[in-house]
């Protein structure tokens, strides 16, 4: 079994993506994986400056919480990014984190399987397509990794609403059990 890292990117209290990520984690644990969840709530993650110093040093010049998160990403074999969908895209804090993971590009990273869990008020299948495309762009830069799948849980609006959506909770649990 593999070492799974779930990164929840919502900053909202009683986040629906956090609730569903917990069920993904339970499913993954029940399947025998070692699971860690990191939330971006309360983390300080600055914008990438584009200096590319990290390509030589494999370290970012910005000293904030992204450094510790990047180290955990580097050591995980499977990564699940959980994000709310805002304006048909991933959360801004998720995109900022992806940019800040640039020091991993020249490193001997272990992650091979990348997944996305997303939530939105709208329920149409196309709602998460741009977010999935954005994450795929990041994955494409890491040749040893592969985007393995996505779970979109639409039709969830209010804070904490996902906790009462048994069908969505079961889908998240099953998604976690199926992680490779």
From TrEMBL:
InterPro entries: Flavoprotein-like_sf (IPR029039), FMN_Rdtase-like_dom (IPR005025), ISF_SsuE-like (IPR051796)
Originating organism: Intestinibaculum porci
Gene3D superfamilies listed in its UniProt record: 3.40.50.360
Assigned keywords, A-Z: Flavoprotein, FMN
Domain NADPH-dependent FMN reductase-like: 3-120
Gene Ontology molecular function: oxidoreductase activity
Name the UniProt record assigns to this protein: Flavodoxin family protein
């Amino acid at each position: 079994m593999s070492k799974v890292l779930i990164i929840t990117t919502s900053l909202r209290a009683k986040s629906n993506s956090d609730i569903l990520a917990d069920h993904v984690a339970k499913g993954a644990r029940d399947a025998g994986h070692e699971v860690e969840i990191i939330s971006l709530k309360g983390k300080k993650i600055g914008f990438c400056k584009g200096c590319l110093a990290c390509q030589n040093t494999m370290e970012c010049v910005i000293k904030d919480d992204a450094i510790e998160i990047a180290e955990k990403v580097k050591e995980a074999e499977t990564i699940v990014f959980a994000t709310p969908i805002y304006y048909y895209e991933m959360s801004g804090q998720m995109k900022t984190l992806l940019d800040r993971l640039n020091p991993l590009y020249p490193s001997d990273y272990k992650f091979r399987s990348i997944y996305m869990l997303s939530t939105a008020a709208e329920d149409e299948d196309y709602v998460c397509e741009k977010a999935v495309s954005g994450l795929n762009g990041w994955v494409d830069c890491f040749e040893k990794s592969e985007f393995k799948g996505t779970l979109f849980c639409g039709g969830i609006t209010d804070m904490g609403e996902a906790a009462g959506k048994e069908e969505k909770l079961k889908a998240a649990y099953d998604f976690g059990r199926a992680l490779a």
